[in-house]
Amino acid sequence: MTELYLFPHSHYCEAARWALDLKGVDYTPTPIVPGPHLFSIRRIAPKSSLPVLLVDGEVVQGAREIIDFLDAKFPANPLAPDGSAAREEAAQLEAEADANIGIPLRAAIYQHLIHHKGPMKHCFTYGMPAYKKAFFSLSYPILKKRIHDTYVRDDAYIAQSRAKLAEQIARFDKRVQGREFLIGDRLSRADIMVASMLSIGVLPKEHPFEWPQFEDDPELLGVFEQFRDSATFDWVRRIYRDHRGASSEIRAAA
Ligand SMILES: N[C@@H](CCC(=O)N[C@@H](CS)C(=O)NCC(=O)O)C(=O)O
């Protein structure tokens, strides 16, 4: 059995899920309770972060590592672009998307989202049984502080994160003008990684996670609003519309 441990809304988990879907792998996406994951995931992998893929007794941690693994194990329908120069370019784009979008966008969103327990609960307990949802509610004050201290930190860090994000999106705006794909003439891992990193800002409707309602917080919406009409956000909407396809249903372990 192949299983992907994930947080349903996580942009890193989405990249791994998308890659598995494109490869046509039959897998179970299993949501993991935040908090206890610090112990449960570290028991099987070097770090506590998700996504983690379990396949034939092997454990692979990290979105890009999972994509590497999938291309090695299932060489048909490669996710890497063709040729070594294009592969280096993909690695560069993915590293930029990770450092300048994935991490700072998460910081900017959590700064506001952690004050909304309802949407946080929806994100972190999607598809889980009632007792796990109850555990989330009870432990939320501790989790909220940990998310704040780990990802939001302080005002200076948020200001720096938002500047990085704006700068990177401006760079991608130039790159995606008039192009379907970031590299070459077919979908590659660079598209998957960059579009997934942006998915928590764009909230594309083809994303397999059912997004919570965010409408009541103008500060939270303000994080995305300035980019809503950008070429980059448009590109993400197109890539999702044309290439995301169906995904396996999230199923919680009992
Ligand atoms: N470099 C990692 C980053 C993954 C990551 O940051 N995951 C977050 C969720 S968005 C996580 O699991 N955080 C909890 C933790 O690290 O304990 C990857 O590509 O998978």
Q: How would you portray this structure in words?
A:
The chain has helices spanning 11-23, 37-40, 63-73, 84-113, 117-125, 130-152, 155-176, 189-202, 218-225, 231-243; strands at residues 3-6, 28-31, 52-55, 58-61. It is α+β, with helices and mostly antiparallel strands and 254 residues long. It has two domains: 3-73, Glutaredoxin (3-Layer(aba) Sandwich); 84-243, Glutathione S-transferase Yfyf (Class Pi), Chain A, domain 2 (Up-down Bundle), CATH 1.20.1050.10. The chain has a four-stranded mixed β-sheet, with helices on one face. It is globular. Bound molecules: glutathione. Glutathione (GSH) binds next to helix 3.
The quaternary organization reads as: single chain
Give, in spatial order, the strands making up the sheet with the most strands.
2-1-3-4
Portion in helices: 55-70%
Can you count the helices? 10
Name the CATH class of the largest domain.
Mainly Alpha
Give the topology string: H per helix, E per strand. EHEHEEHHHHHHHH
Whole-number mean pLDDT: 96
List the ligand species.
Answer: glutathione
Q: And the CATH topology of the largest domain?
A: Glutathione S-transferase Yfyf (Class Pi), Chain A, domain 2
First-last Cα distance: 17 Å
Question: Gyration radius, to the nearest Å?
Answer: 18 Å
Summarize the main sheet.
4 strands, mixed
Give me the CATH architecture of the largest domain, please: Up-down Bundle
User: What proportion of the residues form beta strands (DSSP E)?
Assistant: 5-15%
Unreliable sequence segments: none
Classification by helices and strands: alpha+beta
Please, how many domains?
Answer: 2
